[in-house]
Design goal:
By secondary structure, the protein is mainly α. Helices cover 63% and strands 0% of the residues. It starts with 6 loop residues before the first helix and ends in a 7-residue tail after the last helix.
Length: 313
């Protein structure tokens, strides 16, 4: 039976359950009882929920408490913190395998939602599939199959950030579920994170064993080629900045006293100063055509266009 409560109401009831449980399990002292009762009453009134309604509480909590779900989040957060600078390889230098979180058990209801979601994907109704997988996840929040399936539906509907988040949750819940690594690799690649994509596919190959499946190896190869291309472009960009194009003198003639740059020569190159060697436009304005034909400035403009963050303070 589908839930009659929306997500926010279920979350409010889960918070109330967590507060009440904290009194019962000794996390809080009896002296805190009055404060907890006031807090739960305020939450119930604000969100218009009834914590005394057992069916609503069962709908909100299911088989997982808020504390256990948050534990999954913490494991994922910890994996990202330790794995951010890890080597993206499939060999001996690979990062340690993340510890699996508690996996939510399936139920007949969640499996029904998953099957209906699969049928929606087969007919390419991605919006319906996302909704149905979301209902399955509401029943079983940390089930890696449901999370991975919804990641696939998000990717199919071009919601790649959402797909990435679901796939990351799926691999945190069960790193051995390799489809989730593949979907994480795809989402990261489309989002422009080629290195992260290569890492995800590499983990998929590692967990598949026997050298990995052809699909996983193809994803890894594509991501690695992109990483290598980016590395070559970065290296080439650095070399170009060091090239002498012959438009400005070097050594003593091109430097001021004490080895400082000859600012007068730089002004002349930009078309300012109004001297005979300058190429200024009307009113002393720089000659923009000459400026952009200069390889150094053209390269600088290209770098800024490809990295707009460099313009931000």
């Amino acid at each position: 039976m589908a839930s009659t409560l929306d997500t926010k109401k279920r979350l409010a009831l889960a918070v109330i359950d967590f507060l009440s449980t904290s009194l019962k399990d000794g996390t809080l002292t009896p002296e805190d009882t009055e404060s907890i009762e006031i807090a739960t009453s305020c939450i119930a009134d604000t969100f218009h929920v009834d914590p005394s309604n057992k069916s609503h509480m069962a709908d909100a909590i299911g088989s997982q408490s808020l504390l256990s779900i948050y534990g999954v989040y913490e494991k994922l957060k910890g994996k990202d913190a330790t794995g951010a600078n890890s080597s993206s390889t499939t060999g001996a230098g690979a990062a340690p395998k993340p510890e699996a979180a508690a996996v939510s058990p399936t139920t007949p209801e969640s499996e029904l939602f998953k099957s209906q979601g699969n049928a929606a994907m087969a007919r390419k109704d991605h919006t319906a599939a996302i909704d149905l997988y979301s209902k399955a996840i509401a029943v079983s929040p940390t089930n890696p199959i449901y999370l991975s399936n919804r990641a696939a539906a998000y990717s199919a509907s071009h919601q790649h950030a959402e797909a990435c988040a679901d796939a990351e949750m799926a691999v945190a819940a069960d790193p051995k579920y390799t489809k989730a690594w593949s979907r994480l690799g795809l989402a990261r690649f489309v989002l422009g994170d080629a290195r992260g994509s290569m890492e995800a596919y590499g983990k998929g190959i590692e967990y598949e064993g026997s050298g990995g499946s052809e699909a996983m190896k193809k994803g890894f190869k594509t991501a690695k080629e992109k990483v290598d291309e980016l590395d070559r472009e970065q290296e080439a960009g650095g070399l170009e900045e060091d090239l002498d194009d012959g438009t400005s003198p070097r050594g003593a003639a091109g430097a001021g006293g004490g080895g400082m740059p000859d600012l007068g020569a730089l002004a002349g190159m930009m078309g300012g100063g109004g001297g005979t060697g300058g190429a200024g436009g009307g009113g002393g304005m720089p000659d923009l055509g000459g400026l952009m034909s200069n390889p150094m400035f053209a390269n600088m403009a290209q770098n800024l266009m490809s990295n707009p963050e460099a313009l931000q303070g």
